[in-house]
Specification:
The protein is about 40% helix and about 15% strand. The chain is an alpha/beta fold. The chain has one domain: NAD(P)-binding Rossmann-like Domain (Rossmann fold). Strands 3-2-1-4-5-6-7 form a 7-stranded parallel sheet, with helices on both faces. The longest helix has 22 residues. The two termini are about 35 Å apart.
Length: about 240
């Protein structure tokens, strides 16, 4: 399988890249931090014993102006895609009354609009794939009825929007045979969690979550479509 992972330079994205490549899948790793991305790709390829991880340094904030360049970079390594994992995220931990409109827009740009645009660009490349699975990484913060926390209003709202988009696109893409699901991730010991909840010890490590996601990416589309699934031992 050939899969794109965004936010692949750290945390769950990096662990997922390692999990997929050690199981023989080709991954295109997208993130803006070139140095860290190359380190992740090198670690993946060393463990896999062959070149399966390809770093694709790209700042998704530039996507609206550089769509053709992004697609060209992807097609340089893969003619067809089997799956897209929208894992990149931007955390803003600040009281609602102190959040400026530009800050709020940046959260939605990274967590909602860029994943949406990536789906639009990547769907045509899934023609002919037997998998055709889009997995959007949402959050328990954006899961209806879950615990909410001060300072994370825009982050949670943007992840809720991504989850709702997943439900809508699953219906719209049915004629194309494309499955779209969202995983509302709970507490995992990542740098982002440490930013949101300093000092908290999460019950899961990134590698443990990556192992579940590996299964879900490859097989979840056979059981779920248009679903927002909570994957959480604790919140936070």
């Amino acid at each position: 399988m050939v899969l794109i992972i965004t936010g692949a330079s750290r945390g769950i994205g990096a662990s997922l890249a390692l999990e997929l490549t050690r199981n023989g899948h080709q991954v295109l790793l997208v993130a803006r931090n070139m140095k860290r991305l190359e380190e992740v790709a090198s670690a993946c390829n060393k463990e896999a014993g062959k070149e399966l991880a390809v770093p694709v340094p790209f700042d998704l904030a530039d996507l609206p102006d550089l769509e053709d360049e992004f697609i060209s970079r992807i097609k340089a390594h893969a003619i067809r895609l089997d799956g897209l994992i929208n894992n990149a995220g931007h955390l803003l931990n600040k009281p609602f009354q102190e959040v400026s409109l530009p800050d709020a827009r940046q959260v939605f740009e990274v967590n909602f609009f860029m994943p949406a645009q990536l789906i639009r660009l990547c769907v045509p490349m899934m023609e002919g794939s037997a998998l055709k699975h889009v997995v959007n990484v949402s959050s328990m913060g954006g899961f209806q009825g879950s615990s909410k926390f001060p300072g994370l209003s825009y982050y949670s709202a943007s992840k809720a929007a991504l989850a709702s988009l997943s439900e809508c696109l699953a219906e719209e893409f049915q004629p194309l045979g494309i499955r779209v699901n969202a995983l509302a991730i709970g507490s995992v010991q990542t740098e982002m969690l440490a930013e949101a909840f300093p000092g908290l010890k999460a019950p899961l490590e990134p590698g443990e979550m990556a192992a579940f996601m590996h299964w879900f990416i490859l097989h979840g589309g056979s059981y779920f479509n248009g679903k927002v699934l909570p994957v959480s031992v604790s919140t936070p």
